[in-house]
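=== RUN LOG ===
request id: a7f3
mode: sequence -> structure
chains: 1
length: 197
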Amino acid sequence: MSRRRTHRRRTHKRRNLFVALLVVVGAAAVLMFPLPQSWRAVTHIVNEVTIAQPDTVVFEYVSTPANWPNWHPSSLAVTGAAAGHSLLAGEQVTETFSVAGRRGQVVWTAVERIPPSDWMIQGTIDGRAAGAVRYTLAQTPEGTHFRREFTYAAPNLLFALTNWLLLRKRIEAESSEAVTRLRAVLEARMPSPGAGD
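=== RESULT ===
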C-alpha cells in the first residue's frame, strides 16, 4: 500500500513538474514570438535644444557619424568609408553602441537628407530593423533649433515589457544627455554667429 502511494506521489510530482515546465516554455515562446507589424508598440523619444550656431554648421556636424561619440553617450565608435563626412542618402556606417546597458553594433543607412533642415537614418541589427533617428533643424534668432527623434518598435512581447519597465526610461535619459552634450560641444568648439564682427 505504501509503495503504491509513494509511486503515485512520484508520478504526480513528475507530472506536475512536466506541466510546469510546459507552462514556462510556452510562456517564453509567447514572449519571444515575433509580433505582427500592426501589433508592434512604437516608442518615440524626442529631444530638442537650441544651439547658438548656424543651422548649416549644426547639420554638417550631427550628420557626420564620426562625430557621434563626441556627443552621444551611447555611441562608442563609428566605422565605414562614409563615417568622416555628412552621410548622403544611401550611404551606410556601422556604429558600436551601449544603449541602456546593452552593447552591440548597428548598421545605419541614410534614407533622407535635405540640408540644412532634415536628415534621417534607419538602423538594422543582425539584419532586423532596429529603429530610426530623425534630425530636424530650423534657424532661429538664437541659433539653431535642433530636434532629435529616435523611433523604435517592439519586435516581441518580451521586448515590449522590458521597454515599458526599464529600457525607455534609460534611453530617454541618454538621449536627453546627448542633446545637452551636443550643444556644449558645438558652442565650445566653434565660433558663435557674429563672432569677430
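=== NOTES ===
Strands lie at 42-51, 75-79, 92-99, 102-114, 118-125, 128-140, 143-153.
The chain has two domains: 1-32, 37-189.
=== END ===
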